[in-house]
Amino acid sequence: MARYLILAGLVLIVIGLLWGPLSRLGLGRLPGDIVIERGSLRLYIPVTSAIIVSVVLSALIALVRMLLGR
Questions:
Q1: Cα(59)–Cα(65) distance, rounded to whole angstroms?
Q2: Mean pLDDT in order along the chain per 10 residues (70 residues)
Q3: Predicted structure pTM score
Q4: Membrane spanning segments where (predicted)?
Q5: pLDDT at res. 58
Q6: What one-character DSSP code corresponds to residue 67?
């Protein structure tokens, strides 16, 4: 369990360091992301961005598991 927590911490650190360059990729402003603005209300639903992030993370997890032999 400790290994997974350390790995999760390292992943969060890497994501934090890459946050600036990753924000330039346009995640959050893709076609399929829903933005509703009415008066002072702004509702944002990042459907497409969430799907892309999910696919990438799933591929990375599968790769790590394959490399670790589990």
A1: 10
A2: 88 83 77 92 90 91 86
A3: 0.62
A4: 44-68
A5: 94
A6: H
Report the sign of the C-alpha dihedral through residues 7, 55, 28, 43, in that order.
negative
Residue type, 29: R
d(CA 6, CA 64): 14
CA dihedral 12→18→59→62, nearest 10 degrees, is -40
Q: What is the Cα–Cα distance from 6 to 57, expressed in whole angstroms? A: 17
Task: Show the tokens assigned to 1.
Answer: 């369990």
Q: Are 36 and 47 contacting, i.e. CB atoms less than 8 angstroms apart? A: no
